[in-house]
Amino acid sequence: MTQAHERTATLSQLVADEIRVAMTRRRMSGRELATKLNVSPSWVSYRLSGKQPIDLNDLLRIANALEVGVHELLPPPDIAAGAAETRANAH
């Protein structure tokens, strides 16, 4: 992830980046994640692409499917703070 992306991304987009990293580590495709979640592949795609924000319930379900803790899918605090500042300054 680039520093520019970190500064302009929403928290949901940063979480999607972390989910993709966890999927890569487990060699899991979006289709496989969708099967584990009992949702369509487009459900996964919409969330990972940013078309649909990832809510807390989604995050918990995804963490369970990936067999990781929710905290492992959150970006580092300094990067998350940058996303929060970007959103706060936009209003």
UniProtKB/TrEMBL annotation:
Domain of life: Bacteria
Xref: CDD domains: HTH_XRE (cd00093)
Domain HTH cro/C1-type, first and last residues per copy: 19-73
Molecular function terms, GO-annotated: DNA binding
Name the record gives this protein: Helix-turn-helix domain-containing protein
Organism whose genome encodes this protein: Paractinoplanes atraurantiacus
